[in-house]
Write a structure and sequence with these properties.
It comes from Lygus hesperus (Western plant bug). The protein is α+β, with helices and mostly antiparallel strands. The protein is built from 5 helices and 11 strands, in the order E-E-H-E-E-E-E-E-H-E-H-H-E-E-E-H. The chain folds into 2 domains: 225 residues, no CATH class; 53 residues.
Length: 284
């Protein structure tokens, strides 16, 4: 009997990604065109949840980011994209970064985000069946990896009070339980990040059984995972001492060339004015 909750992670990833190189539109560099030759996966119950084309792989993200930037990041483990927005500016070992975190639509309920209907088991073309949808902060995972569990953030961080109040001993905290990635904004290079997820079992009352007929439906935490990654000192030095310096020099050179161009226009105008005065014999 195969009972491993994380057995799907024992094998190497076999997905083949096609991405934009940015030759025709540099703003699309790194965007996913297809996964295994298809613009969408087939795990969920509607195109909005299955679509991966136009999103980004976790290791190659969009350059030239600003505080208003928004990213859809595809993760093979979740079989879907994670919408991420800028939470704050930060710095890591001397490199200025933008800190992206999953926004409210990720694990959002269909009450607040109707477009999330397709994460509800049994949904058909925007019609959800019965009580198949989870409350805020939870997602049934069986459609992704054929494992009968529910995903949340650790300690039910940002989840419905319904889930939080059913379990004792929780202390949800953004610093400890929030997933994030810090990106160097000019290049889009991931500098550091953390993927934090909690695996839960869904317990439901069974009316046919007297002992559990009136039991409250709840999520029982099983384990939570905290995966962290950061660039090493050698990679950080290369980014700071080579790449960012070159970009800074290029930026300065751009303004220098603009200044030289303006100066040449001014000099040309002055020379034309002086030449015109001489031709018309204006006295000094």
């Amino acid at each position: 009997m195969n009972v491993g909750v994380l057995r799907f992670r024992n094998d190497s990833l076999s997905e083949t990604f096609e991405i934009y190189r940015g030759n025709k539109d540099f703003n699309k560099i790194g965007q996913i065109v297809s996964v295994n030759g298809q613009p969408s996966v087939t795990n969920w119950f509607g195109e909005a949840c299955n679509k991966v084309a136009g999103s980004y792989d976790e290791s190659l993200l969009q350059p030239f980011l600003t505080r208003d930037s928004f990213l859809n990041v595809y993760g093979s483990d979740l079989c879907t994209t994670t919408p991420m927005s800028v939470e704050s500016t930060t710095s890591f070992k001397g490199i200025d970064c933008l800190k992206f975190t999953p926004n409210e639509r990720f694990l959002g309920s269909v009450v607040d985000f109707p477009e999330n209907y397709c994460y509800c088991p049994g949904s058909i073309e925007k019609i959800t069946l019965g009580q198949s949808c989870m409350r805020t902060g939870a997602m049934e995972f069986a459609a992704c990896q054929a494992v009968p569990v529910v995903l949340t953030f650790p300690h039910f961080y940002k989840a419905s009070r319904y889930y939080q109040n059913a379990v004792d001993g929780l202390s949800p905290d953004s610093d400890t339980h929030q997933s994030y990635v810090s990106l160097e904004p000019t290049t889009g290079i991931p500098i550091n990040g953390a993927k934090r997820i909690q695996i839960n079992f869904q317990l439901k009352g069974t009316p046919a059984m007297k002992m559990t007929g009136k039991a409250r439906d709840l999520l029982m935490p099983f384990l939570w995972i905290d995966e962290k990654v950061e660039l090493g000192d050698d990679q950080l030095s290369m980014i700071k001492d080579t790449l960012l310096k070159m970009l800074k020099i290029a930026n300065i050179a751009q303004w220098v060339l603009i200044a030289i161009g303006i100066l040449m226009v001014l000099v040309g105008s002055i020379m034309s004015f002086i030449s015109a005065r001489r031709e018309h014999g204006h006295p000094d």
